[in-house]
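input
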Amino acid sequence: MPITTTIKDRIAEIVFDVPPVNAFDSTTWNSIPAMVTEAGRNPDVNVVLIRAAESARGFCGGVDIKEMQAHPERITVLNRGNYLTFKAVRDCEVPVVVAVHKFVIGGGIGICGASDTIFAAEDAYFSLPEVDRGAMGGASHLSRMLPLHKVRAAFFTGGNIPAAEMHRLGAVEKVVPREALVEEARAFCTVIASKSRKALVIAKEALNGLEPRDVDHGYRFEQGFTLEMYMHEDSQKARDAFVETGKAATF
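output
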């Protein structure tokens, strides 16, 4: 199975293993919300840990651009899967911890931005290359992690933000050596798992309610601009360039 869930010691681990780069197609994105929701509702689970397989090249490459290049009409299905995935992470009844290594791109940003705590390997970097892929979206969740001007600089350039910089700005809880990532994340989850599930559920609801802005509403608003961008010829040109050359198109 490309995405698996295991439960042990009150920790539910959801593991991504979709070769080659954990870039999910529309069907896969639409399957993730139920996994997260089911894990969070399980009375034997106090915390959810989302990570990539240790053998994976990176945490998440976002969406399957090849699918969108060949089937741009699926954009609304993909949009819904993205939206519901990130909402499920944020609405999960118990805390959600994310452990990332190497690349955290596009939808990977959404998962991290919707989560409660992020652990990152030293080799991790975060990126929203949407402008170079003919799409929009992700800034709502990146804004849950970083200051406004940092978000805009990252979005307009499509550049990479190293894990150390994410930690400096308060988005990442801890940066650790790649080989220690899973162990460190599990140790953190073990502390949470030892708490009262009832207290954790109430705390999660309270903390979500204290936030000054609705990240889910913001992301849904962004997706309207994704659809608008998909209707422009530059969007297809951007996807074609990425699939054919692996590089951003020049306009």
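quick obs: The chain has a mean pLDDT of 94.
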